[in-house]
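Fold it.
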Amino acid sequence: MIINYFKLAEEPFGVTPDPRFLYLGAQHREALASLNYGTESNRGFLALIAQPGMGKTSLLYQYLAGLRGKARTAFVFRTDCDSREFIRQVLLDLNIDATGKDLPAMQEMLNQVLIEEMNAGRRFVLVIDEAQNLDEKVLESIRLLSNFETPWMKLMQIVISGQPSLAEKLSRPSMVQLRQRISLLIHIAPFNREEIDAYIDHRLFIAGCSNAGVFTAEARRLIAEHSEGIPRNINNLCFNAMSLACATKQKAADAATVLEVLADLELDPLFKRPSPKTVGTQERPILTISKPQPLGGTRRGWVQGWAAKVAVGGALVLATITAVNKNEGKTVKPPSGSESADVEQLPAPTQLPILLDVIEPSVNQSRMPVQISEGQTLSRISVENLGRYDQGVLEELRNLNPWLRDPNYIQTGRRIVMPSFPAVPSSGRIQSTQGFSYSLQEEGKE
């Protein structure tokens, strides 16, 4: 759709690691130079670390393209496997059938390949992408592969590439032997503002776009601010902004278009649409007097309001006892014709409001946001901060956090605004003594 609308030859912000669209910023150029230098220097083990979406795979393809004709290469990206499956994938990429072979047999087959390449005067380079998923036992097997060597050279160059969790895994005490063999640890930092503009222009140019004004200056500023300099985020924002501009028949994607895309993608945790229920505060009453309601009620109403009913019942009993004590010893004359000369007269029970209604605390007052940690769930956060988790709490959380669309999915690192006090269930009503007793009787019949 956007190809015809903006007169492009192809999609400029695709999701595949096409080497033609690779933009070599300062960090990427330095990383590629380090990979080539480490290989030429026969350093053995190299590691490439970068955040998700920084273009590691595209950079590795560029690196492998530069080795064409100079070395035999194997590329492995399926890393959720054991040691046997890993070696099988290496041989499979080399077009070697290892069906039915055990691990020692496959290692011997790989050793034969290395010797053949050495005799032919070529290097052998093994590139492992998504290495953060490798189990420690598999990493140890990879370390042992580096033992294929002669007294004067390594028979295999190994490049492991992964996300920052790979660095954490390599820093463990159990990984000290592998860590010591890594000669170069290469890091790629996110793009700066100038590189983001150059990256967008580069991809538009490769896609055949002759109009540099597809994105306004303010739109580019927002993209730079909210993408955090990560190419994959830039691609998502640019593609959706161009799609929205096309759908609304705009000549260019402006700031309003990018803001709408940000709201839909929710890339920025700070970007929230205001909720009318979270604007302003109001005075919160504790108790109000209401009109009488029918007595009785369901079991749920009894369970929710039991504490309030017991409190009112106790208050009535206490008032009655107090009245008796005050009138103790007083006598009144009996009616005409009475057989008793002195009859002790109890006063009428003190009249209390027939019905009291408990009002829920206002949701307009909120706490400071709570940051979501890894592994936490919405129910766990609610129980820890509010003491309970039910439909009422969920509704208040949604009112305070408009981005909370699916309660079963919350993003680690985001901040969630909690209600100021645990929501008091609408138990219905605190009734008079008669209604209180009646409710007890009705509950017993269920």
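Residues 270-312, 315-321, 324-366, 422-446 have pLDDT under 50 and may be disordered.
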